[in-house]
Amino acid sequence: MLRAVLPIVTVLGFALLAYPGEAASITTLKSLKLDVPTSDTMFPAGPESDAINNNCLACHSADHVLNQPSLSREAWQEVVNKMITAYKAPVSPDDAKAIVDYLVRTKGTS
Amino acid sequence: MRDHDVQPSMLTRRGVLGGMGIASLALLSAPASAQETVDLDVPGGPSMRMVTTSYPQKGRMILQRSSPPWLETPFEVFDQGVFTPNNQHYVSWHWANFPADIDVDSFRLNVRGQVNQILSLSLKDVLHGLPRVDIAAVNQCAGNSRIYAVPRVAGAQWADGSMSNAIWTGVRLKDVLDRAGVKAGAVQVRFGGLDDPAMEGAPKFLKSLTIDHARDREVMIAFAMNGEQLPLLNGFPLRLVVPGWCGVYWVKMLNDIEVLDHPDTNYWTATGYRVPDTPYNTVKPGETGFKMVPVTRNAPRSFITNIGNGDSVPAATPALARGIAFGGDCGVARVDLSIDGGKSWQPAQLGADHGTYGFRQWQTQFTLPAGGAHTLMVRCTNTKNVAQPGFRIWNPAGYMFNTIETTHVVAAKG
């Protein structure tokens, strides 16, 4: 990001705040009926992608996992264990191993 | 439970949460060229994120996770004033199973447990039956800035935008508890919202405060932010506001208050959201043998908002640095700027004080002596005389980062 900072003369003073409206004046609330987007994106195909697709999309979308940093095998193992113990994800031991392998292959540190 | 499309396609558009009582609408994938992205500029993992305008009542937001939504406030918003516009107030949910259709006439806030009188309050009761209060307060996720952890850690990969400031309007939690009449022997108060786990057996999102904290007259039940009803994704119709404490306590779509006669044992209170019990909650990567404690209070932070990394600043000419600061669990006492990488500091001028727990604007003039690379730093000291530390805070879950921010600039002969 390359931006030039203007010398002081042209930007003197605090940014003008849009002061919020008179807060205490609100008297009624209006019902809402909205659409909240979801995502049905799957994990990129490859060895063991079935295991991660079948076990890791029920509670959060794939971008949640795909946006994670590269992590060691131990760290990915810890993540999968936490999903099973803390959040009660029903993952079989075979699938857990396959998922860790998938994550190490696609998002490992080495 | 969800039924997944088995095709390994990136373009399926079926609303997979349909049938669970959630209004769903798959994000439409636009051609790559038309999709605005932002580079969060960190090594060790994907640093590009989509910028989305697809969420209801929300403007341009950084898409950290589609579902349950994690929407980050773009950093430039913080240069525009101390109150974050409602349509860019950050969004974070733990479970996707929350209603998108809320009828204000049938909604009830229940108060139960160790009370003399169980309450079932309508929104009219809340808006018209209790004294109103306003407070400016920063809502900051405990994991704000996690993406900058070195080494990187798992979790929401927030840059600096999982914080937002608003004037909250509502009623005191104490007044609601007094109306119910808290029984002797009450120790904690537990809060729950309309969100439910996406799978059976998974822990419902609940958080608790001690009974004394709950009755401190500052903790409130908000029905408005910045003078308007809350956006759905920020917790419509009611949200707990815990001034000075991390956002995880600010339970959204609050509909259940339970007074407990024993410490809460649910996962989110008793196990999740833990930091090392060390000064600044920091440890060395790999270190073991420390005690873990819950995240609670915010810590002081400050940011330069009008100058970014890599910007060029005229040399030997006065320039303006401007930004925001907050004290955490108390007010801002001072903000100082360094233009020599932290060797010396100059005080900044503070803007209007809109409330102890809100953002405070600051600004100061500075002159870079010569051309070339320079390092700007900004440090907040709060009214409890706690200053941001100069060393890099790190802990295994990436919580409570408040290290002094550094901005690398280039001075150019004008």
UniProtKB/TrEMBL annotation, chain A:
InterPro entries: Cyt_c-like_dom_sf. GO terms for molecular function: electron transfer activity; heme binding. This is Sulfite:cytochrome C oxidoreductase subunit b. It comes from Bradyrhizobium betae.
Automatic annotation (TrEMBL), chain B:
The keyword rRNA processing does not apply. Keywords: Metal-binding, Molybdenum, Oxidoreductase, Signal. SUPFAM superfamilies: E set domains, Oxidoreductase molybdopterin-binding domain. It comes from Bradyrhizobium betae. PANTHER family: SULFITE OXIDASE, MITOCHONDRIAL (PTHR19372:SF7), SULFITE REDUCTASE (PTHR19372). The keyword Signal applies. Residues 1-34 form the signal peptide. This is Oxidase. InterPro entries: Ig_E-set, MoCF_OxRdtse_dimer, Mopterin_OxRdtase_euk, OxRdtase_Mopterin-bd_dom, OxRdtase_Mopterin-bd_sf, TAT_signal. Residues 98-268 form the Oxidoreductase molybdopterin-binding domain. Its cofactor is Mo-molybdopterin.
